[in-house]
Every structure is written in C-alpha cells, then in structure tokens.
Amino acid sequence: MTEQWSAPTVDGPVHATVPVPGSKSITNRALVLAALADRPSTVHAPLRSRDTLLMAAALRSLGIGVEDGPDGSWLVAPGTMRGPARVDCGLAGTVMRFLPPAAALAVGDVSFDGDEHARVRPMTTILDALRALGADVEGDALPFTLHGKGGVPGGEVTVDASASSQFVSGLLLSAARYEGGVTVRHSGRPVPSLPHIEMTVSMLREAGVEVDDSTRDVWRVAPGPVAALDRHVEPDLSNATPFLAAAAVTGGSVTIPGWPARTTQPGGAARELFERMGCAVELTAGGLTLTGPDRLTGIDVDLRDESELTPTVAALAALADGPTRIRGVAHIRGHETDRIAALAAEINRLGGDAEETEDGLVITPRPLRGGVWRAYADHRMATAGAIVGLVVGGVAVDDIGSTTKTIPDFPGMWSAMLGAR
Ligand SMILES: O=C(O)C1=C[C@@H](OP(=O)(O)O)[C@@H](O)[C@H](O)C1
Ligand SMILES: C=C(OP(=O)(O)O)C(=O)O
C-alpha cells in the first residue's frame, strides 16, 4: 500500500536546524567490511533505514552477528558465512551489488531477490565478474543464486562499470578475502559516481587493506586480512539536500549539524552546487548553514560524479529563474527508476518544461500548478516532490513511504523543520 502525502506549502522563509541521519553509503560499506573482518567491529551512529536494515538482516541470515549497541551503534561479530540463506535486497543498490561478492565466500547456497523495481536494475556486469573470479553464480539479474564454496580464487577481471560505480565498489570491498586478491579494470564509457569508489578505497585502507588505485580505471586489492572497524558514520549529505533546498527555494536558512569539513561523500559537492544557484553557504562549528537567495539561478552542470543529487537539482531548477542543463547522468536511468524520464514527466505534469536528453535534462522554469507527483518507488523522486510542493500549492506525493529507503521518517523531519519557522 502506498501512502499519498499532501506536501506542505509555506508562504514565507523556512528557518530551521535539521539533524540528518547517517550516510547510507558509509553504513553499508562498514557493515560489509565488518562482516569480513578478523575481529568484532562497532559502527557508531549508523543509518537505520530500509537499505541498511536489509543489509543487516542479510548478514544475520548468513550467520554474522549484528546486534544493537547501547548508544544506537551496531556491534558486528564476523564469522564464516553459511547458507542456505535468502537475501532480500529491497531496492538497495548497495545490497544487491556489495553483498554478492561477500556471500560468494559463504559455504552453501545464497539466493538473492528484491522489489519489482530492483529486478530491472543492472546486475549482469558484477555477476559475470564474479564468475570470472571463480564464483559459481546462477542468473544474470535479480533473482539469482550463489553456490558458495567457502572461498573464491580471485584474480584479474575487466568490467564495463559505466552503468554503476557500485560494480567496482562491490568487487573491491570483498577482494582482500579472495585467495589471490582482485584487480578490477574498467573498460567502457566513463565510470559514474567515481567519488563513491574513492569512498570504498578509503574505507578499505582504514581497515588495513592494501589498495593500489594509482592507474586510472584500475584498482588492485592485495589479499590479506580486513581489520576490525570502530567507525563513526557521518550524516548523509545527499539526504541533507532536500532540507537545504527548503531554505534555497523559500529564501530561508537551514543548518545541518555535523556536516564534515572533509568527506568522501559525493553529497559534499552540494555546497558548491547550491552556491552556483545563488545560495550563501557557510560551514561553522555548528554545521553547514545555507541561506537562500531571492531568486535561484539556473545552471549548466555535469553531475556524473554526484549523480544521486540529480532529483534535488532538478526540483531546484524547476523553481529557478533561468534554464538549467544537467549532463553526464545517462546511467541514472538504471537507478531506483529511470530518473531522467521520471523527473521530466513529473515536472511537466505540473505545467513545467523539462526535456530529456541522452545524458540528462534541460529544465526551463515555468509557473507550476498543483497535482500528483509520482515517486516511482524512488525515495529521491519523493523528496524532489516535497521540495516543489513547498512553494507550489496542492502538490501530493503519491508514495511518501518510498523515502524510508534511506530516511527513517522523512515526513516527520519535514514537518519538524517547518514547525520551527
Ligand atoms: O556506492 C554507493 O554507495 C553509491 C553509488 C552510486 O551509485 P551509481 O554509481 O550507480 O550512481 C550512488 O548513486 C548510490 O546512491 C550510492
Ligand atoms: C542510486 C541510489 O541508490 P542505490 O544505492 O539503491 O543505488 C540513490 O540513493 O540515489
């Protein structure tokens, strides 16, 4: 059952401080690394939302201990993974791409499935790569089964990762535990979301794993142990962007506490994007504060590196005072939904002017009217609808529940933010 949600509209600037839950990308990397580590780990301030709860549940079904710590942390007790097990990936790219390479180390069968929308997300590249590295995999997309033999030879593999950086990240995360380690070479159109691969490399190094990424499009992971983690998870900076956007579109000001001065999250680039659109952004000890302008400026932007920000940028663009061109994100047609088609359809349904291009969108602002904004089961489509609804009366998001993918209570956070006006 999906839940239609009337997006609240405001008639003045939004002023609020909004604490944002932990990063999905860091939490799910930390869980996989902790499961492969040689001793128990603690993950502090993890995100607890559908994507990470599914990862935790999947690891438990494989025999890994994932217990609640006293302070909201997760305590992870590693061990030999064992099938038979069934993994529900939901719609989480990080579960469907990060867990199979780890589960290939299990003893026994591990079957994977997910939501209807997940079954059409690209998977062949990583499943073929696992076969090439010596794993026994049945299937080319969800659902599929791994016949685990308790170990994987590893070696060198060439992949076309132009559809998702997660193919590379997934292989690298488990690579140290493969007998010969793993070398991944990318061959094809440019890899999107490269900072997410850098996040993977950086977290592997934190866990004592030797990674050579000195050659472009080649990553070499040496075989060896994975050290236990004691890891704090930063706020999810991509999930912070709808809240910052609330200040941007109303000329208000929103502070996100705990915004890191340095980060491996691509969402960190949101600062510069908002500035280019005319916002003032300041990082202090209290967090990142964004103050919106009288009118937002349209921009020409390549979002290949931070493609998960596209829905927020598109929503801002529809409300700006000049055209925006978004480039470099052809692969987001394979995200939770075809985001290029979905954004164009929903902006146009409300009377806007959004045109699909091969690798992005051209959005020319027009006065918008209320109506149903469809989420397509996609959390970031839903939050984009909330941004538009803040200044366009009568917008209803058809499936606000989709936001639980990466934010446990988006409607509650949104109304708390507006209540603080
Ligand atoms: O590794 C990760 O945590 C992610 C990588 C990116 O995927 P793509 O490379 O498929 O864009 C990003 O969009 C996704 O939200 C999270
Ligand atoms: C693309 C995204 O998610 P996933 O991790 O499921 O790929 C996203 O969160 O924008």
TrEMBL record:
Q: Is Amino-acid biosynthesis among the key words of this record? A: yes
Its EC top class is transferase
Per the record, the GO terms for biological process are:
amino acid biosynthetic process; aromatic amino acid family biosynthetic process; chorismate biosynthetic process
Question: Is Transmembrane helix found in the keyword set?
Answer: no
Gene3D superfamilies named in the record: Enolpyruvate transferase domain
EC number of the protein:
2.5.1.19
- Its recorded name reads 3-phosphoshikimate 1-carboxyvinyltransferase
Task: Name the gene that codes for it.
Answer: aroA
